[in-house]
Amino acid sequence: MNTAQKLVEQIKARQIKPRPKWYFITLEWAIWLGFAFTVFLGALAFSIILFTIQQVDFQLLQHLQHSWLEGLLSLLPLIWIGFLTLALLLSMYTLRYAERGYKFTFFHLVGYSAALSIMLGTIFFISGGAQELERAFAIRVDLYQSVQEKKEQIWSLPQAGYLGGTIMAVTPEAFELEDFEGKKWSIDYGQADWPPRIQLVPGERIKLRGEQTSASAFSATFIRPWGGQLMNARQPQMKPKE
Fold it and tell me: DSSP secondary-structure letter at 202?
């Protein structure tokens, strides 16, 4: 008995039947849908990482006692870095088993998966979706500390020269600031530097670099909008977690 006959006998013995065409079409669609989902997840994660970086004012962080890199790492949400890594791995895996996926090299798999996530994530970030997603995630997940919460911690160190909050009233010599804990501060801004886009008006959220001169007084040297480099200073405040 030759090899062909042996195979025929084994097929008959095991009652192996050919799978219908619809099975392979469904499997192919499932693979591509899985690839699209993992790319989308990676895009969301990448957009929030971009949002985090955008929230860092490197000009002010250079005055930190530690490096600006440490300041950046203190804000970066590790959970979203984990989501991005997981999404890239899963998208590479699904693409590998797509039709003709065996032809892709490892670098092709990494490149295609990462490029799509980066492109879609950048679009989502520019549209403002990353900020809304991150805020919604922080409200609904008790253990998650949002970028804004971490940022408030950094800018609530008046003794170290960092103060943030909302302007309550303004005079030619000083303005009143309410910090994130509700404390009122008198801010001397006579020698401060601030960009033209900042309007020192009640309701404006800002961050300050300077020196604490008394228990409730602060002399500012830099004034910057609370938002990041590419965003307007006014941002809706996040509702507390229930």
Answer: T
